[in-house]
Specification:
Strand content: 15-25%
CATH superfamily of the largest domain: ATPase, nucleotide binding domain
Mean pLDDT: 95
Number of domains: 2
Distance between the termini: 19 Å
Order of helices and strands: EEEHEHEHEEEHHHHEHEH
Strand order of the largest sheet: 3-2-1-4-5
Largest sheet: 5 strands, mixed
Low-confidence stretches: 1-5
Number of helices: 9
Radius of gyration: 20 Å
Helix content: 40-55%
Number of strands: 10
Shape: globular
């Protein structure tokens, strides 16, 4: 419930993994969203936590400065600082939290701590149309796969989640098996558009309830590739598009079948998609098609609000600001943070 209402300029800071991002939100309207990516991890095939935190230190001041410039506001106009407290890489989080605390302390501004996963859900309130409460949100990323029952802005319940690996991790692992460079998820998406999704059939885990499992699928893909490469060393090169399309189809069907079950169980028609994997073309198209078939109202953020970004932190900060929920200066980041 909103306790009070005031036009406010919120500076949002996101540094949970390898994107350094800053955003300005004024009265619930995103004025800027600057994202500084880190290419240093490409040589290692994945994010190296120590390197990520060092690059965050280099990027955070320029990102904030550019965000203020793009929004055409000065640091004197900022009324509060929202930041990602967790979950995420501790070293990366520490950079963002430390900057937010220093900026707020220097200007005597309130601090607003944000749960990264809740912010992904609240990205749906950046633009119109917006889902109506209650709604279901499938939140999918490299580290999380959850079905969230969203009752209010900060009243959320995880009703289904992965019991082992996340969907994004399954796609990333597949890309490594196929020898694709990092980051592999977008490349699987690219090649899948060129392939036959019915060329190969991979197993769908039989997990009860609304929970997910992707470890078995990862193993099945690994053995499938190994066995076929033994027979034909050029198997991956000759069939790359079909493999990517078939893997993507199985991941998408696993996600959407559980989401359909949740929607029927909770009798909810407003269905949303969030998280980095929500940028995947097959998943976006699959949700829209299922939504049409089931009579759902489906909501998918713009691509720039799917991956890690500060706009979702700023909009979450906006709603916390209206509730008057602020953090203390002695707050610390949390690598693992309850939803």
């Amino acid at each position: 419930m909103i306790l009070f209402c005031k036009v406010a300029v919120i500076l949002g800071i996101e540094s949970s993994c390898d994107e350094t991002s800053a955003s300005i939100c004024a009265d619930g309207v995103i004025l800027s969203n600057v994202i500084a990516n880190q290419t240093i991890h490409e040589a290692y095939g994945g994010v190296v936590p120590e390197l990520a935190s060092r690059v965050h230190q280099q990027n955070i001041v320029p990102a904030v400065q550019q965000s203020l410039l793009n929004a055409k506001v000065s640091k004197n106009d900022v009324d509060a600082v929202a930041f990602t407290r967790g979950p995420g890489l501790l070293g990366s989080l520490l950079v963002g939290v430390s900057f937010a605390k220093a900026f707020a302390l220097a200007r005597n501004l309130p601090l607003i701590d944000i749960n990264h996963m809740q912010a992904h859900v609240l990205a749906h309130f950046i633009d119109d149309p917006k889902p109506a409460f209650p709604f279901l949100c499938l939140t999918v990323s490299g580290g999380h796969t959850q079905i969230v029952l969203v009752k209010d802005y900060f009243d959320m319940e995880v009703i289904g989640q992965t019991t082992d690996d996340a969907a994004g991790e399954a796609l990333d692992k597949t890309s490594k098996i196929l020898g694709l460079p990092y980051p592999g998820g977008p490349l699987i998406d690219k090649y899948a558009r060129l392939g036959n999704a019915d060329a190969y059939r991979f197993p769908e885990p039989q997990i009860p309830g609304l929970d997910f499992s992707f470890s078995g699928l990862k193993t099945a893909i690994l053995y499938f590739i190994r066995n076929n490469v033994k027979l034909n060393p050029d198997f991956v090169q000759d069939n790359l598009a079909d493999i990517c399309a078939s893997v993507e189809k199985r991941v998408v069907t696993i996600l959407l079948n559980k989401l359909k079950k949740a929607a029927q169980q909770y009798h909810i028609k407003d269905i949303a998609l969030a998280g980095g994997v929500s940028a995947n073309t097959g998943l976006r198209q699959g949700l829209k098609q299922m939504g049409d078939d089931m009579g759902w109202n489906t909501f998918i953020p713009k691509f720039e609000y799917c991956t890690d970004n500060a706009a979702m932190i700023a909009i979450a900060g906006h709603y916390k600001y209206l509730k008057g929920e602020f953090a203390r200066q002695d707050i610390a980041p949390l690598a693992r943070m309850p939803f």
